[in-house]
From TrEMBL:
Database matches in PROSITE patterns: HTH_LACI_2
Name this protein carries in UniProt: HTH lacI-type domain-containing protein
Protein keywords: DNA-binding, Transcription, Transcription regulation
InterPro entries for the chain: HTH_LacI, Lambda_DNA-bd_dom_sf, Peripla_BP/Lac1_sug-bd_dom, Peripla_BP_I
SMART domains: HTH_LACI
Keyword Transcription regulation: yes
GO molecular function, one term: DNA-binding transcription factor activity
Organism: Mycoplasmopsis agalactiae (strain NCTC 10123 / CIP 59.7 / PG2) (Mycoplasma agalactiae)
Domain HTH lacI-type: 7-57
Organism phylogeny: Bacteria, Bacillati, Mycoplasmatota, Mycoplasmoidales, Metamycoplasmataceae
Superkingdom as given in the UniProt entry: Bacteria
């Protein structure tokens, strides 16, 4: 219908214009009223005029800024965000940012030009401090959340990897003799902060229990580096390996060396039905996404920055 508006929806649904506004902006509307409004919206194929909403000053959407070539599990987090947002009738839009600092900030500026209600930032692996500086100093007209970081200048959430790898190493140590060495496999694609968080828990347990340890770095993106890594493990008779990422775990599984004792990390995968690992850090990324949206709603009513650690993590053991 031409020039169909909130006023027309309100008249046909026998509600006030403010009720229709709440329907579109995530406010409270009873189930019966919501269903009545939705029926009218569907019947007349109505969709809010985005340009008009910008003129009024803001948009109700949540933009998710994702770096290019992000880990696969980021999609599970985004799904959790989107499904939780749907409960509040909030739309989510994912936009991919370039890998370098200039392109990432250019994407941030573009997103802010839409005047969204909220923006969730997934940090790139490089230039994280510069990106955080920009967000903290320039993004103040909408609700924000940054992952993964613990920087208290911004609303933030991060997985407690230090505790997770401490608990993982605790479980894994029960499969080896005390005089055996454990290697920590560092995936080079991780940022410096991510590498430190994951290795700190491993190193602390080894120090406390007098376990010999070493670190090995691998670049899973390079075929030559991967081959060199496998050869190093084989030549040095290293059999106990704690993996910092799921990708480094897959690299070792692909070597088909059945003498290796491995750990995995991540969400559900085909390897959960095989005996390829001794222990695994299981992370419910979907639940993490749900919690991220909740932080957005909480921060809308808070005068201080919110800092959360995601601790819904369990250690799975295999025989």
């Amino acid at each position: 219908m031409k020039n169909f508006s909130y006023k027309d929806i309100a008249r046909l649904a026998h509600v006030s214009i403010s009720t229709v506004s709440r329907f579109y902006n995530g406010g409270y509307v009873s189930k019966q009223t919501k269903a009545r409004i939705q029926d009218i919206v569907t019947k007349y194929n109505y969709y809010p005029n985005h340009g008009a909403r910008l003129i009024r000053g803001s948009d109700n959407s949540v933009f998710i800024i994702m770096p290019e070539q992000s880990p696969n599990y980021y999609q599970s987090i985004v799904l959790g965000i989107s499904q939780q947002a749907k409960v509040f009738n909030v739309k989510t839009l994912t936009i991919y940012a370039g890998r370098d600092l200039e392109k990432y900030i250019e994407t941030v500026r573009y997103v802010l030009s839409w005047k969204p209600w909220a923006v969730i930032f997934f940090l790139p692996n490089s230039n994280q401090n510069a990106v955080l500086d920009y967000i903290a100093n320039n993004v103040n007209e909408c609700t924000t959340l940054v992952y993964p970081t613990t920087d208290k200048r911004v609303n933030n959430i991060a997985i407690d990897y230090t505790k997770a790898f401490y608990d993982l190493t605790t479980k894994f140590s029960s499969y080896i003799d005390k005089n055996e060495k454990i290697a920590f496999v560092v995936d080079s694609k991780l940022s410096d902060a991510e590498q430190k968080q994951r290795s700190d828990g491993f190193e602390r347990f080894c120090r406390e229990n007098g376990i010999n340890q070493l670190k090995i770095e691998v670049d899973n993106r390079s075929e030559k580096a991967t081959v060199d890594f496998i050869n190093f493990v084989y030549k040095n008779n290293i059999v106990n390996l704690i993996n910092s990422t799921h990708e480094s775990f897959i690299t070792l599984v692909a070597s088909k060396d059945k003498n290796l004792r491995l750990t995995d990390i991540g969400y559900m995968s085909i390897y959960d039905w095989k005996n390829n690992y001794k222990c695994k850090i299981f992370i419910d990324y979907h639940l993490l996404g749900c919690q991220m949206f909740k932080i957005l709603t909480d921060s809308s009513y808070s005068n201080s920055k919110i800092s959360r650690k995601f601790e819904n993590i369990s250690i799975i053991e295999k025989p």
